[in-house]
Amino acid sequence: MPKSAVPVSATALPSPFRNKAEREQDRADKRAAVLLAAVRMFNARGYHAASLDDVAASLGVSKPTIYHYLGNKEQVLVECVNRGLSMLRDAADAAARAPGSGHDRLRAFLLRYACINMDDFGRCVIRTNEELLSMDSAIQFRARKREIDDAVRGMIAEGIADGSIAPVDIRFASFALAGALNWPARWHDPDGPMSPAEVAEKLVDIALGGLTPRG
Amino acid sequence: MPKSAVPVSATALPSPFRNKAEREQDRADKRAAVLLAAVRMFNARGYHAASLDDVAASLGVSKPTIYHYLGNKEQVLVECVNRGLSMLRDAADAAARAPGSGHDRLRAFLLRYACINMDDFGRCVIRTNEELLSMDSAIQFRARKREIDDAVRGMIAEGIADGSIAPVDIRFASFALAGALNWPARWHDPDGPMSPAEVAEKLVDIALGGLTPRG
DNA sequence: TAATCAATATACCCATGGGTAAATAAAATA
DNA sequence: TATTTTATTTACCCATGGGTATATTGATTA
Fold first, then answer.
1. Which of A31, B14, B26, B121 could link B83 by a cystine bridge, Cβ 3.0 to 4.6 Å?
2. What is the pLDDT of residues B17-48, one digit of tens each?
3. Predicted local confidence at residue B19, as pLDDT
4. B10 in a domain, yes or no?
């Protein structure tokens, strides 16, 4: 065994001296931590009642630190909402590429949708009303939510076309599904006995019942 | 025609001099006007973003006038919420006394429920999160909402017993229905083309589809 | 007519909290 | 070693808005 092979484990030891890539990672980690603390505070108290001082205190830092990693309060909220929307968007894309009938794909998507809505950032999407945002942000927000809704409507339409879904009013079916699966963002307790996945399955089964063709 | 009959119309003329009953009525009217202005402001901007100064200004009065007719800001909100809850409660009681199968009664109630949720005070019930309230008010609020939910569950149970509703999980069925029918409080536009009654009927049909026994 | 009460306004107090300027310390780079 | 950059703090500014003390006016009642 050549001598030069030995120091590998030594150089791999955790070092307090970070190189450039590590520093960028540190920064990203801190940014993510700020965002998570903020979204939890927003969800627990509501946007207006959650102060940045409290968010900072929950991380053991001071308020300007938040401004160092993210912009002003609205930008923090927008970033939280965008995280949630991206998760939903990814789920919709995955469902669109998945095999199976329209009903199957819709069901798979809705299970994921409901789980996201019970998670930190998804919850924030549901609980954020447009009135909280500036005009520009509200327009973008609406557009991104609309994309998700269009994906749902598309899946319903395909299901109707392939006979796996009853010929319902597509617009109202998507509203009803969204309502049923958004609502847990308000009542589900993450520390309670039921996991998001369990809740999601129960709700999706009931909500989809109304769209299933009758024997 | 005796002379004494003529002055009747004269004494019935609108007079600026109000008697005691009329003064009490005036007061009640003003109180109601303040409440309506407040609930609309709360619904449009959210509780925290709606200032009492603005509510007062929208009525052409000053802030202390609000304190004269109602208490502090939280009391105004509580009163708005209670109005909405009373409407829902009345609807639940009426449905419980109505004839027909469990499914019929549930359907009639849900139509009313959905409409109330699109009205000023019902909207406020949906949009008011417990975090906005003091501990005491939140406990009362939860209890009153629970009454409504219990009524829904009772109707579902009766429907299952009489065979008009499929044997679903009662708890989750009530959650799913509530979600689907609460959601319009967020998106329905009172000035839009669809009336609350139309929206209600479409949504109830789809939402109840999942609870209907299969042929 | 005097005393009281109801309705309303003006003018204020003050806590909260978003946002920033400026200082410091530590590390990275030249 | 000198300079710059990054991370973070302390200390502050100031607008908003809930809430109140007090004055005013006009009607009610004794």
1. B121
2. 566 666 778 889 999 999 999 999 999 999 99
3. 66
4. no
What average pLDDT does the structure give for chain A? 91
Closest by Cα among A65, A79, A74, A88 to A36: A79
Does B11 or A183 have the greater pLDDT score? Answer: A183
B179 → closest Cβ in A166, A168, A183: A183
Residue B162 is predicted with a pLDDT of 94
Residue B8 has pLDDT above 80, yes or no: no
Q: How many A×B Cβ pairs under 8 Å?
A: 107
| pTM for this entry | 0.90
The predicted model gives A167-181 an average pLDDT of: 97
- Domain co-membership, A142 together with A38: no
Chain A contact present for B208, CB below 8 A: yes
Burial of A9 from C-beta contacts in 10 A (0-12 / 13-18 / 19+): exposed
Average pLDDT over residues B12-19: 56
Do A108 and A40 lie in a common domain? no
Last residue of a domain, which of A71, A93, A112? A71
Q: How far is the CA of B23 from the C1' of C1 (A)?
A: 25
In the stretch 100-139 of chain B, residues with CB closer than 8 A to chain A read: 127, 129, 131-132
Query: Cβ A169–B206 below 8 Å, yes or no?
Result: yes
Distance of residue A64 Cα from the nearest chain B Cα, in angstroms: 24
Domain shared by A180 and A98, yes or no: yes
Are A64 and A169 part of one and the same domain? no
- Asked if B87 and B121 count as a contact pair (C-beta separation under 8 A), the reply is yes
| Optimal mutation site among B103, B134, B172, B204, interface A, most CBs of chain A within 10 A | B172
Percent of chain B with pLDDT over 70: 88
Q: List the alpha helices (DSSP H) in chain B.
A: 7-11, 20-45, 52-58, 63-69, 73-97, 102-117, 120-127, 135-161, 170-182, 184-187, 196-209
Domain carrying residue B40: 19-71
B126, B24: one domain? no
> Coil, strand, or helix at residue B210?
coil
Whether residue B204 contacts residue B181, with contact meaning beta carbons closer than 8 Å, is answered with: yes
